[in-house]
Design a protein that fits this description.
Blueprint (H helix, E strand, L loop, with lengths): L1 E2 L8 E4 L2 E11 L7 E8 L5 E7 L3 E4 L2 E12 L2 E6 L5 E5 L14 E7 L5 E5 L3 E9 L12 E6 L4 E5 L7 E5 L4 E5 L3
Antiparallel strand pairs: 1-6, 2-3, 2-6, 3-4, 4-5, 7-8, 7-10, 8-9, 10-11, 12-13, 12-15, 13-14, 15-16
Length: 188
């Protein structure tokens, strides 16, 4: 058993007869009244996200997890197939277990959280950023750089990201996986 002081991003807890992963949290200490922790929880079985507030000192039932590195192999319908990079065993997960499935390209190495009680994979943690190639974007208008203007661009995984006007088709860009936003253009 853990308490609210142990809450951190990525912690898996048992709550309402399901296992949830904490995606966001904020410790709040108002001037008047008791402290509390505001959290955003994502169900590892359904992918549903809920907001919840725990009072300070509340006991939470944490789930012991192990992390393993897996390589993404391919997608088949709603299933995503991964291979353990150490022992080459393969697992398949549903789309709801992934945070940003549209930014995942074949060969990408991710971290999979596995429940130690029953060895069931719980969720997939993407790297902080990924480098993808732009496959389609409209050409930027020359001289339109006075503002922070952006345009939509489609990357090799099919995801759409807003990018600055100077990005062209064929450019490789770094994308922040947590928010799915453009970070920088990569040099060849």
């Amino acid at each position: 058993m853990a308490s609210t002081s142990d809450i951190r991003k990525g912690l898996c807890i048992r709550y309402n007869h399901d296992i949830f992963k904490i995606t966001e949290f904020l410790h709040v200490k108002p001037g008047k009244g008791p402290a509390f922790v505001r959290t955003k929880l994502k169900s590892v079985t359904t992918g549903k996200v809920i907001d919840n507030t725990f009072s300070a000192g509340h006991k939470i039932d944490d789930v012991r997890v192990e992390t393993h590195k897996f390589q993404f192999l391919y997608q088949e319908g709603e299933f995503y197939h991964f291979m353990n990079v150490e022992d080459y065993t393969q697992i398949r997960l549903t789309e709801s277990a992934l945070d940003m499935p549209n930014l995942l390209k074949e060969g990408e190495v991710v971290t999979v959280l596995i429940n130690t009680e029953d060895n069931a994979p719980l969720s997939v943690e993407m790297p902080a950023s990924v480098v993808l190639e732009v496959t389609h974007t409209e050409p930027g208008l020359k001289g339109n750089t006075a503002t922070n203007a952006t345009k939509p661009a489609t990357v090799e995984t099919g995801a759409e990201v807003n990018v600055p006007l100077f990005i062209n088709e064929g450019d490789k860009i770094k994308i922040e996986t947590e928010k799915g936003t453009y970070k920088e253009r990569m040099k060849e």
